[in-house]
Protein: UDP-URONIC ACID TRANSPORTER 1-like
Amino acid sequence: MTNHILNFCQLHTSLQQFPNTQKTHKSNQSHPLYTKLNHVTTNQETQTQIYIHIKPSNSMNETTTTTSFPQHKFQHHPTTPFTTPTTMSTTQSEKQALFITSLIIFWYSSNIGVLLLNKLLLSNYGFSFPIFLTMCHMSACAVLSYVSIVFLKIVPFQRIKSRSQFFRIATLSIVFCGSVVGGNISLRYLPVSFNQAVGATTPFFTALFAYLITLKREAWITYGCLVPVVAGVVIASGVLCGLMTGEPSFHLYGFINCIGATAARAFKSVLQGVLLSSEGKVGCYISRIAILVLLPATLVMEPNVIDVTTTLATEHRYLGLLILVNSAMAYGANLLNFLVTKHTSALTLQVLGNAKGAVAVVISILLFRNPVTFIGIAGYTMTVMGVVAYGEAKRRYK
Structure:
C-alpha cells in the first residue's frame, strides 16, 4: 500500500511540471495506477482532481493515458458543512413517523372519547334518546364533511351520477343508521367493557355475510380462528350452560341490541364492497340520507326529546356543550379513520383497532367503576386473541 502511494505521488509531481499534455506509458496493465478511473484526491486546504483516462492502444502491452488539469480545479475552496441525502431522508422519515403517530393518537382519542361520552350521556346524565343522539352525530358529519370537501379539499368532491347510485347509497345509509342506533341503545344497558367485547366479534359476522352475499370462501384455518372469537363472548357474557357467572351487568335487551349493531356493522362493510366498490368517497351523502331516516324515527319513537333535553340542560349546565363536542368527535373519528388507513394500511388499522378496544375497556373500568369478573376478563381476552389470529390467518391464506 505504501509503494502504491509513493508511486502515485511521483506521478502527480511529474504531471504538475507538464500540464495539459499527453504521456504514453508502457507498463503492466495490472499496475494499480492503471486500474483507477477518475481518481480524486482531496484535503482540507485544496481540492485537486486528476482525470486519468485509459485507452487501449494497438499493442496489448501499451496503454495511452491522458491527464488534464482544468485551471479552475486548483482554486482554493474552503470546506463548508453540507446535508447529505441520507440526512435528508432520515429527517423526512422522522417527520413522517411523527405525523402518523399523531394521527393514531388523535384517532384513539376521538374513538374512545365518543364511546365514553355516549355512555356518559345515555346512562349518567339521564339523556335516554339514542336515536336523537345518533341524528346529532349524522348532522355534524354532514356539515363538517361538506366543509372538509369543499373548503379544505381533503378528498375530492363526488357527485351522485345516477338514480341507481342514489339507491345504493340510501341502502347503505339505512344499514349504517341501524348499526349506530343499536350500539347507542346497548350503551344504555351494558357497560363499555362488555359492549367492546361483543363488538370484537365483527370479523365473525363479516365472514358470514361475505359468504352469504358474495359466496367468498376463506381457508379453513381462517374460519377456525373465529371459534375463540365467538367462544370468548359467550364466556364473557356468562351465558354458558345456564350459568350467569360472567358479566355482572348483563342485560338481555342491551345484549340483543349490541349483537344486532355488530352484525349491522359487518353487513355494512360487505354491502359497501358490493354496492360502492368504485364510487369513491360518498360519506357526506350517507350522513345526509341518514338524517332523513333518523328525523322521522326520532319524532315517532322519541317524541318528548326536546322537552326532556331542555329540562336536563337546566340541571346540567354543560349538557348542550357535551352533545356538541360528542357530535364533532364522531365526525373526527370517521375522518381520522380514513386518514390512518390512507397513511398506513388496512391491516395496521385492524391491529390498532384491536388495541383500541382494549384501551377503551381499561379506561371505562377506571372511569365508570363497573364491576368485572375474572371470567369476563378471560372471555374478552380470548375474543381479542381470536381476532388477532383471524387477521393473521386471513393475511397468510389469501
Q: What stands out?
A: Strands lie at 22-26, 40-42, 47-49, 51-56, 62-68, 239-240, 243-244. The longest strand covers residues 62-68.
